[in-house]
Amino acid sequence: MDYHSYLKGVGARLFTLVRPGTPCPFSLTFDQFSYLHPATGFKGAVNPAADRQIRFDLRATTTQDFYRGSAFDGLTELGEVSIRWISSSYRRARVQLNTLQGALSADRPAALVLQRF
Length: 117
Description:
Elements: E1 5-14, E2 26-36, E3 45-46, E4 52-60, E5 66-73, E6 76-85, E7 91-97, E8 110-114
Antiparallel strand pairs: 1-2, 2-3, 2-4, 4-5, 5-6, 6-7, 7-8
């Protein structure tokens, strides 16, 4: 898997007006910085300016500490996202952005694995 980009957390929102007994959905907002691959070798760089801001809208699942939802660029849905809390200081997320039906395909799907926040 190629390294694609870096996500910097810039916001979080918890929606608390829900029916009793219903899990509260929440959103996480990130600035996305593209990774610039070198022409040769292994040492690239991260773009100093954010390319865009993306939002993850998440809900609890039936599995404890596992959340699933959708990623958005503004109102455009980018794909599915999931996050699993491993401990109070260690989380693991997998973001797999795939082309939605009817959308133009990118050269390759973007994938990102976050292991430490």
